[in-house]
Design brief:
Number of helices: 8
Number of strands: 0
Largest sheet: none
Helix content: over 70%
Shape: globular
Distance between the termini: 47 Å
Length: 110
C-alpha cells in the first residue's frame, strides 16, 4: 500500500511539477517520509519516495528547505545505504540529493 501511494505521488509530480506546493500542503511530504522511514527494506517505497523528493525539491527553494528541515536527507541516505545494489534506487536518490544540495554540485573543480 505504501509503495502505491508513493508511486501515485511520483506520477502526479513528474507529470506536472506545478503540483508540488499542493502535495506538500496536503501532507504529501510527511506521508512519503513516513513511508520511507517505516518501510526501509521496501525497494519500491524507496525508489518512488526518492523520486517524489526529487520533484518536490527541484525548482523550489522553499520546498527544498522544508525537505531539509524534515530530515529528508536522512531518508535518502538510508535508501542508498540499504539498497546499494539497486541501481534504480541509487540513481533516484542521487538525483534527489543533487537538487537538495545544489551547492555541492556547482563547485568549480578546476
Amino acid at each position: 500500500m505504501q509503495d502505491n501511494g508513493c508511486f501515485a505521488l511520483h506520477v502526479l509530480l513528474c507529470n506536472s511539477n506545478g503540483n508540488g506546493d499542493e502535495v506538500v500542503g496536503r501532507g504529501g511530504l510527511d506521508v512519503v517520509l513516513y513511508a520511507m522511514n517505516n518501510h526501509p527494506n521496501n525497494g519500491r517505497v524507496q525508489l518512488h519516495g526518492c523520486n517524489v523528493l526529487y520533484y518536490l525539491a527541484d525548482g523550489s527553494n522553499e520546498r527544498r528547505d522544508l525537505i531539509f528541515k524534515s530530515k529528508g536527507w536522512e531518508s535518502l541516505s538510508g535508501a542508498v545505504r540499504l539498497h546499494r545494489n539497486n541501481d534504480q534506487v541509487a540513481k533516484a536518490a542521487a538525483n534527489a540529493i543533487r537538487v537538495l544540495f545544489p551547492p555541492l554540485y556547482n563547485i568549480d573543480h578546476a
